[in-house]
Design goal:
Shape: elongated
Number of strands: 20
CATH superfamily of the largest domain: FAD/NAD(P)-binding domain
Structural class: alpha+beta
Order of helices and strands: EHEEHEEHHEHEEHEEEEEHEEEEHEEHEH
Largest sheet: 8 strands, mixed
Length: 387
Amino acid sequence: MNSRPSILIIGAGFTGCALAHDLSLRGVNVTVLERGEIASGTSGRTHGLLHSGARYCVTDPEAAIECITESRILSQIAAQCIEYNGGLFVALNDQDLAYSAAFEQGAQATGIPIERLSPQQALQREPNLNPNLLAAYTVPDGTFDPLRLALAFAATARQNGAVFLTHHEVQALHADGQGRITKLTAWNRHTGQQQTFTADLIISATGAWAGQIAAMVGASTVVKPTPGIMVAYNQRLVHHAINRLCPPDDGDILIPQRRMVVIGTTSFEVENPDYIPITAEQTEQMQRAAEALVPAIANTQRRGVYMSARPLIVSGSSGRSLSRTFKCYDHEALDGLPGLITITGGKATTCRIMAEKTADLACQKLGLSAPCRTKDVPLRSYRLYYS
């Protein structure tokens, strides 16, 4: 056991938990440090859409292919966390309808199965839809419980030896005499004491906070915290994920979650992902978008308004045009800082493949020959994390 390589993972959201699961299966000693609880950052504030990729099949085909591939894998290994309710893309005006040709071509090109419905067929499936809709398409969307998904990955990782240290906030990264990042200092928020941890490799899986971790040693990360506002309502007015038939836009999806529906989301940029304002203007914008899709929202009580910071990869532009795919940064090649890797970007739906690619790089650097097994290993019950 003492000869097994060791890795410290910073962050216990979807990607950090999936990475701990992957590396533990490959025989690595894994310790995960999280400043809050499991999925207490962006992962715990997602609207819970299991993406078919259809939202991105026109504007970001790489992300679309990742989503349709990974949603099928998650449906097999994490069935306990997923509701297989499907989705609809609906056209509400002539501009939406004009987008249908590009949508059909994009879905075909990315391998996403769709079926066109008449307005009457769509209303039969979802009677609360806007009765003035012009067309609709079925897509293989689903919904998942965010906390259960993260805990299922974490529970399986713990079964294979991973250690999770919650309420441990990383405050500094340290290099050894050869310039290799081998150590970090964390504040144990349970005891109020500082602790030092060492490992063969450190991986930052902190999403929108990746830039803050990298800055501790002057490393580069090209990620922009791009938050969005979501509004939850206390009735489950639809059973499918309802998407607006348009390019990615604010308020383009209404998602059923348990006994609620959630409309999301806006998109704006911030420098500090720990301070994201929730404005009345954006809340009302989401209200109008929800009512356009399902008019009964107008008479439904709000359950809550909340926000989440997406970690989007910067590609020379901003906001909605940033790619939804992910990037793994090798800071030895990028910054001359061996021992440090950052994984960021992506979506909840793609957390498993993000973990796989990051673990591949980590094993390569450690000289460890061990294939990824996560496509075929069913996750343990999320309840077992606390057992």
